[in-house]
């Protein structure tokens, strides 16, 4: 079997896997949301009553609507308005990046859905499932007794066939303008399938569609079930990211050209080692810059295990740092700030309704964290792909947060493994080019548990590798340092 045949076969297997779980997504997301809620509402000695908690959550939800609902739209950003915008909104970043002069992967809007349309497309949770969940019955009972019509009360809302049909029409027509060398993604994140393929090193330079049968085919961000393609909105990550937005959010999908990375790294995939599809993968060279309070404090290769930490990596890490700093300086100059509600409004999050964050083992770290990532400051991550023109802006995201990775950015090379064994959040300062030389990167457990010490370089060390053209491994360079 050639490497190419292997890639195709594995991609098919992984695509089939993500396809087969789709039907269960709505159910499992509902279950997860209710489980989280049930944890929050669990009675604690001396804690507030259930009613007080529900009211607290409702208050917080309204506060979120007020704050996030007034974020600048991509159009506002283009027109030069000052203020905060959703740090995950790709289209909001575009005018800023363009203005900074840093090369970027373009994105054009192909469909624009309202919250109602997005909801109609995301799937229906059957009443029978909800009724089986104790927590759901409990909340319904309390809500009814309180005569409560808040955001948690169960909207049985008229199911509108017309709304659904119109939304389907939109996401189908949108694909007519998308060519074969373009990919499609939601404005706040990519689809699960794309993430799985790219993360597993299986996307390849321009992922061709995977055909399962005459009627069923998937491509990056879209699906064909019958004879027309439609945007894949029925995706776990997209549904999750869409659900975390205020009511007035425009759910935009964009098409982007596939950009060829200037370096492909072939390596063994530590994450697939004990799966039905083990083996090698090829990763595009990508990077993440971590920004705390307007300053790039850290740079990490994105698919770290595939990097060797040589001169090319060192030069690129420095170029990424410069590009990221340029973008942030531009945003500051334009007074357009990437906002992340969880960090910016941590006070209301922590205070409201005995929020679970209070019981988090890292709660005491919060003060220290907020010193570095001050609410209202320029805090985010910026991702780049390596091209012949140098680092090209790919997308942006929230800063890392001390409460796990559910809401904040992944620290990648600063923690090495995709799977994390601990909630502790690493200090994302310095340069993480590659894993330590003696680390067995085929062993995901070893990778996940490896502490950050020893493979994070200082500016001086990175400059030395970049200048000397030395092929020294970063950790060897470290011992050689005078
Ligand atoms: N236009 C593109 N050109 C080349 N690779 C892409 C492109 N868009 C996405 N990718 C690949 O897919 C991965 C995930 O896509 P991304 O847009 O970063 O969304 P997310 O990280 O939210 O899933 C990227 O890290 C990259 O490897
Ligand atoms: Mg990404």
Annotate the secondary structure layout.
Blueprint: H1 3-41, H2 50-68, H3 74-78, E1 83-86, H4 90-100, E2 108-113, H5 115-122, H6 127-132, H7 134-146, H8 161-173, E3 182-186, H9 192-199, E4 210-211, E5 216-219, E6 222-225, E7 229-231, H10 236-243, E8 251-257, E9 264-268, E10 280-284, E11 286-292, E12 295-301, H11 311-333, E13 336-339, H12 341-344, H13 346-351, H14 366-372, E14 380-387, E15 390-397, E16 430-432, H15 444-449, E17 456-457, H16 459-468, H17 474-480
Parallel strand pairs: 1-13, 12-16
Antiparallel strand pairs: 2-8, 3-8, 4-5, 5-6, 6-7, 9-10, 11-12, 11-14, 14-15, 16-17
Helix pairs in contact: 1-9, 4-11, 5-8, 11-16
Bound molecules: adenosine-5'-diphosphate and magnesium ion.
Residues 383, 395 line the site of magnesium ion.
List keywords for this structure.
482 residues, alpha+beta, 4-stranded antiparallel β-sheet, 17 helices, 17 strands, globular, disordered C terminus, binds adenosine-5'-diphosphate, binds magnesium ion
Please give a quick description of this structure.
The protein folds into two domains: 1-28 and 106-122 and 159-258, no CATH class; 87-104 and 261-482, no CATH class. It is built from 17 helices and 17 strands. It has helices at 3-41, 50-68, 74-78, 90-100, 115-122, 127-132, 134-146, 161-173, 192-199, 236-243, 311-333, 341-344, 346-351, 366-372, 444-449, 459-468, 474-480; strands at residues 83-86, 108-113, 182-186, 210-211, 216-219, 222-225, 229-231, 251-257, 264-268, 280-284, 286-292, 295-301, 336-339, 380-387, 390-397, 430-432, 456-457.
């Amino acid at each position: 079997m050639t490497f190419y045949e292997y890639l195709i076969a594995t991609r098919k297997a992984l695509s089939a896997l993500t396809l087969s779980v789709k039907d269960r997504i709505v159910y499992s997301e509902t279950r997860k949301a209710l489980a989280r809620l049930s944890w929050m509402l669990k009675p604690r000695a001396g804690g507030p009553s259930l009613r007080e908690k529900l009211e607290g959550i409702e208050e917080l939800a309204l506060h979120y609507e007020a704050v996030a609902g007034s974020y600048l739209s991509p159009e506002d950003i283009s027109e030069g308005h000052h203020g905060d915008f959703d740090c995950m909104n790709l289209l909001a970043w575009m005018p800023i990046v363009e203005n900074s002069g840093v090369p970027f992967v373009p994105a054009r809007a192909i469909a624009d859905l309202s919250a109602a349309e997005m909801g109609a497309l995301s799937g229906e949770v059957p009443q029978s499932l909800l009724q089986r969940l104790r927590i759901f019955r409990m909340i319904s009972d309390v809500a009814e007794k309180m005569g409560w019509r808040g955001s948690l009360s169960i909207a049985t809302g008229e199911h509108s066939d017309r709304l659904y049909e119109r939304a389907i029409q939109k996401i189908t027509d949108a694909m007519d303008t998308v060519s074969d060398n373009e990919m499609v993604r939601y404005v706040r994140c990519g689809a699960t399938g794309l993430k799985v393929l790219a993360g597993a090193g299986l996307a390849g330079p321009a992922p061709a569609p995977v055909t399962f049968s005459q009627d069923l085919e998937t491509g990056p961000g879209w699906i064909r079930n019958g004879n027309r393609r439609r945007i894949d909105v029925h995706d776990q990550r997209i549904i999750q990211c869409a659900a975390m937005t205020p009511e007035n959010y425009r759910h935009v999908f964009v098409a982007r050209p596939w950009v060829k990375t200037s370096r492909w790294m072939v390596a063994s995939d530590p994450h697939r080692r004990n799966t039905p599809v083990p083996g090698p993968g090829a990763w595009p060279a990508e990077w993440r810059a971590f920004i705390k309070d307007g300053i790039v404090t850290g740079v990490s290769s994105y698919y770290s295990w595939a990097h060797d930490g040589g001169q090319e990596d060192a030069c690129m890490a420095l170029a990424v740092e410069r590009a990221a700093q340029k973008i942030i300086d531009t945003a500051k100059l334009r007074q357009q700030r990437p906002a992340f509600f969880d960090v910016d409004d941590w006070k209301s999050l922590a205070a409201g309704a005995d929020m679970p964050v209070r019981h988090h083992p890292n709660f005491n770290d919060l003060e220290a964290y907020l010193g570095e990532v001050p609410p209202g400051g320029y805090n985010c991550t910026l991702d780049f792909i390596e091209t012949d023109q140098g680092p090209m802006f790919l997308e942006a995201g929230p800063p890392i947060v001390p409460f796990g990775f559910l809401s904040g950015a992944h620290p990648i090379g600063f923690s090495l493994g995709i799977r994390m064994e601990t909630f502790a959040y690493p200090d994302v300062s310095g340069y993480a080019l590659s894993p330590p030389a003696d680390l067995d990167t085929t062993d995901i457990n070893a990778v996940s548990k490896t502490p950050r010490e020893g493979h994070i370089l200082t500016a001086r060390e990175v400059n030395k590798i970049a200048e000397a053209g030395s092929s020294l491994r970063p950790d060897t360079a470290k011992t050689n340092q005078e």
